[in-house]
Design brief:
Number of strands: 21
CATH class of the largest domain: Alpha Beta
CATH superfamily of the largest domain: Alpha/Beta hydrolase fold, catalytic domain
Structural class: alpha/beta
CATH architecture of the largest domain: 3-Layer(aba) Sandwich
Number of domains: 2
Length: about 475
C-alpha cells in the first residue's frame, strides 16, 4: 500500500512538473518572440525610394472633423480648440448660418487652416504625414509654391468639413489645377490619398470636377478629375454611407462628456451626404424583415421625430428666441433647409455609383474589418408606437430566435462597415455587386484597426508607400 501511494504521488508530481515546465517554455517562447519582434523600419525599407524625385505629387485629403477651423476675425481656433472645450463643450458655435432665400449655407467667419495632426494626445493625421515625409521622402508644399524638380512633394488639402462636399470638390479642382501650373505641366497627374469623407470628395471630383450636378437626376459625368489623377487611395471611406453617422445625426455626436447636438449637425450639408445609400438594407423590424423607408425623404424624419423633428430638440431651439414668432420662423427655415439638403444628399450618393468611362482611375481601398459596426437600425413596436433601436441592448421585447447583434452589426472599423468600404450593399462576397452600384475597385487591403487609428497602422503605412512609389 505504501509503495502504491509513493508511485501515485510520484506520477502526480511528475505530471504537474511536466505541465508547469511546458507552460513555462511556451510562455517564455511567446514573450521572447514578442520582445524580439521589432517594428519594421520603413525608412530603411524605402531607403532606395527616398531620393527618387520624378514621382507625381500626392494630395492628402482629410475626413470629417479632420480639419482645424479658426475665427478669421479673432484668429482663435474654434475646432478642435482646447482639450477642455473639445471634451466638455456643446459646440453649438459650429452651426452654419442659413440663407433663408437660397436655403444654402451662408458664409461665416470660420475658415479651415490646417489638418488636425493630433489632439488631446490622440493622433489624427500626424502619422500619415510622417509616413509621407520621413519614410517616403516627400516634402510638404502648398499650391502657388515654387517647385524644385529635385524633390517630390505632398500637398495637404484643407477644407471646411461642414460644407457641402460638392463645394469642396470644386475647391479641390482649383487646388489641383494650381499644382499643375506650379509644375508648368498641363498634363500632370496627381496621386490622391483620402481618409473617410475625403474619399467621397475625391470620387465626386473624379467624376464631375467643379460641376454641381445635384440640381437634377441626370448626373452627367465629365471625368474632369479623372484626367488629372494617376492613383486614388481611399482609407476608411464610407462608399455606401455610414449607419453610425446616421445614428449620430439623429441623437448627436458624443465627444467626451459633451456632444455636437443634432440641430447643429443639421446645418452641415456634408453630413447628409454620409447617409446610407438607398441600396442598403438599413432599417428592419424586430423579426429582421426589411422595412421600405426612404431615408432621403423628409417625411421619414418627421415620422420618427428625428433630429430637428424631435420635440426635445425643438424645445431647445425655441429656447434660443425670446419671441415665439421668431422661433417659429427659424424652425420653418430650418425644416425647408433640411428638406433641400436631404434631397441633394440623395443625388450625391447616387452620383458616386453611376458608371464611368473606360479610362477612369481605379480605386485602392484600405480599411478595417475586425470591429462590429452599426449596419442597421431596428423598429420595435411598443404599445402601438414605433420605437427606434440602434443597439441590441435597447430592444425591450427581443425575439429569442433572433441574433440582434448579427442583425444590427457587421464587421468594419467601428464607423464604416466592410461592405460600405468595398462599395457593396451586402457583406456576402459571393453575391454579385448591385447593378446600380458602379465601384471601380483595383484592390483592397483590410486591417484589424478602428476608424480613427487606421493612419497609425504599420501595415497601412507600408502598403501606402508601396502603392504610391510603384512604377506602372
Amino acid at each position: 500500500m505504501r509503495v502504491l501511494f509513493r508511485f501515485i504521488s510520484k506520477l502526480i508530481f511528475n505530471r504537474y512538473v511536466g505541465i508547469a515546465f511546458l507552460t513555462a517554455v511556451l510562455v517564455s517562447a511567446l514573450f521572447m518572440g514578442g520582445f524580439n519582434q521589432k517594428k519594421p523600419d520603413l525608412k530603411q525599407l524605402f531607403a532606395d525610394s527616398m531620393m527618387v524625385s520624378d514621382q507625381p505629387p500626392v494630395v492628402f485629403i482629410h475626413g470629417v472633423l479632420g480639419g482645424k477651423l479658426r475665427n478669421t476675425e479673432t484668429n482663435e481656433e474654434v475646432w478642435p480648440g482646447s482639450v477642455f472645450n473639445l471634451l466638455f463643450g456643446n459646440h453649438d458655435h459650429l452651426a452654419l448660418k442659413i440663407d433663408p432665400n437660397s436655403l444654402m449655407a451662408a458664409p461665416d467667419a470660420y475658415e479651415a487652416f490646417a489638418i488636425a495632426d493630433s489632439t488631446a494626445g490622440k493622433d489624427f493625421y500626424g502619422n500619415i504625414i510622417k509616413t509621407l515625409s520621413e519614410y517616403g521622402g516627400y516634402k510638404e508644399a502648398n499650391p502657388g509654391q515654387q517647385i524644385d524638380p529635385s524633390n517630390k512633394y505632398y500637398y495637404p488639402f484643407v477644407y471646411d468639413w461642414r460644407q457641402d462636399n460638392v463645394k469642396t470638390a470644386a475647391k479641390l479642382a482649383g487646388f489641383i489645377d494650381q499644382i499643375r501650373k506650379d509644375y508648368n505641366n498641363p498634363d500632370l497627374k496627381v496621386d490622391l490619398v483620402a481618409h473617410s469623407m475625403g474619399g467621397l470628395i475625391s470620387r465626386y471630383f473624379i467624376r464631375y470636377g467643379k460641376t454641381d450636378v445635384l440640381d437634377s437626376n441626370d448626373l452627367p459625368v465629365n471625368l474632369y478629375g479623372g484626367k488629372r489623377v494617376r492613383r486614388v487611395i481611399l482609407l476608411g471611406t464610407p462608399n455606401l454611407g455610414s449607419v453610425k453617422l446616421m445614428n449620430g445625426f439623429i441623437d448627436g455626436i458624443k465627444l467626451g462628456m459633451g456632444k455636437i447636438n443634432p440641430e447643429t449637425l443639421a446645418t452641415m450639408p456634408s453630413l447628409y451626404q454620409l447617409m446610407p445609400h438607398p441600396l442598403n438594407n438599413w432599417i428592419v423590424t424586430t423579426q429582421g424583415k426589411k422595412l421600405e423607408r426612404d431615408l432621403f425623404d423628409i417625411k421619414t424624419w418627421k415620422q420618427f421625430e428625428w433630429n430637428i423633428f424631435d420635440p426635445v430638440v425643438r424645445t431647445r431651439i425655441e429656447a434660443q428666441f425670446q419671441d415665439a414668432e421668431d422661433a417659429e420662423e427659424h424652425l420653418k427655415i430650418l425644416e425647408n433647409y433640411f428638406g433641400k439638403s436631404i434631397e441633394r444628399a440623395r443625388r450625391f450618393v447616387w452620383s458616386l455609383t453611376v458608371p464611368l468611362p473606360e479610362e477612369h482611375p481605379k480605386l485602392i481601398v484600405f480599411g478595417g474589418d475586425c470591429t462590429m459596426t452599426a449596419a442597421r437600425i431596428v423598429v420595435e413596436e411598443v404599445d402601438g408606437i414605433s420605437m427606434i433601436r440602434m443597439r441590441p441592448d435597447e430592444i425591450t421585447n427581443p425575439d429569442p430566435t433572433i441574433d440582434y447583434e448579427k442583425l444590427l452589426m457587421e464587421p468594419g472599423d467601428g464607423a464604416v462597415t466592410k461592405a460600405s468600404l468595398l462599395g457593396r450593399n451586402v457583406l456576402d462576397p459571393s453575391i454579385p455587386r448591385h447593378k446600380f452600384s458602379f465601384f471601380p475597385l483595383d484592390h483592397a487591403v483590410l486591417l484589424c484597426e478602428k476608424h480613427n487609428n487606421l493612419t497609425s497602422n504599420i501595415n497601412f503605412q507600408d502598403n501606402l508607400l508601396n502603392a504610391l512609389l510603384v512604377r506602372d
